Amino acid sequence: MTARQTVLLADDEPLSREFLQEALQALGLDVHAVADGAAALAELARGTFDLVVTDLCMPGADGLEVLAASKARDAARPVVLVTAHGTMHTAVRAMRQGADDILEKPVVLDDLELVLERLRGRQRLLHENRRLRDEVDGGPLVVESKAMAAIVAMVERVAPSRAAVLVRGESGTGKERIATMVHRRSDRAHGPLVKLNCAAVPESLLESELFGHEAGAFTGAGKRREGRFEQADGGTLFLDEVGEMSPAMQSKLLRVLQEGEFERVGGTTTVRVDVRIVAATNRDLAAEVAAGRFRQDLLFRLEVVPLVLPPLRERREEIVPLARHFLRPGLRFAADAEQVLQDHRWPGNVRELQNVVQRCGLLCAGEVVDGAFVRRWLAPAAEALAPVAAAPAAGAGPAEPVVVIPPPPVDPIRALVGRPLAEVERALLQATLQHCAGNRTRTAQVLGIGVRTLYNKLHDGGEPLVAAEP
Prior knowledge:
This protein is an alpha/beta fold and 470 residues long.
């Protein structure tokens, strides 16, 4: 909670009500006070409050009824019960019904302040948890195209089931986001969501990652370790790049999907789990089956519900809304910047778009990102490396294609070898400061250091550094 938030105060004792109202106002809160439980219920139905403070014993409706009504309308809204009957039985009953804290009459001002501080701490933790979850999940899903709207509608329809889902699409199209949505919309949302990129784990370790191992199962296995299936018990297991599995691992995965059981590596005890599988791949698994590289029976098990994500170039109406979503607060795109974004083919899909927008937001010195600045950070177009036909002369036949060969890559480290570290650091500071047009805050952000640290480095070891004239 923060200052000037609103409190509904319900207390049938005039002196107690006046004291609590004045105390809450002194602590920076706007207070709406009522004299009984029935009035409190009516106010909850009419208005919106950030906090409820209610006496336990009141005519019309008691504090527990007010508590229940408040939680029914907003489960996250804190409710504090005030009682002259501070028995353990009352406290336990109130907490079981969702009370966030209890104050005993006569209320001591210090106790009231401590309770409010605890509630502020809880609210901060809730907000931080939401923020972290949004960071992990990518925040709200931006849906502007008919194709993605159809995908979301399908997710809403199949998420409550236990059916396995296979998400297909190019790299960077958002397959993991869709897998997370399937989990969040399912009845397993309160269970774990465990993720594993099958392509990122060496083949020799993949079985242990999936099924766990017993102590001494192999060199380095000092103790028993649970695998991803056990960690996901009661929830969802997301297997990214499932098409990279070897035939041997495909067989072991198929058994778990069929039987719901497995043995840890080096163990003989059968472990049973209840796991919903969501898999993803950028491969055409039907073609892999035809080529003998993927088991058809495993594909049948994984692809009960197929979801195919179109690449970003096929849902161009989402490019600008996504870019605005990724841009940091306080900045906006100029019209020509949005046109540049719209015209790019985005071979890396949404992941590439997010990368470019975040880079622009970090390095832009003003409040408006223009088209020229965006164009600087776009990856070279694929056609830039393709054969380019020269313009034919009048009357001449077709010209031979001219292949544009990019120059060999330059090793930026080689030029620094043999120079003192302090000199290299000073040169980097100078170049970055110049790149950021002399903006020291932006320079510190780019270098990943604090502004004070930057200030000290700029004034250390000689004349203060300044940005060169553009």
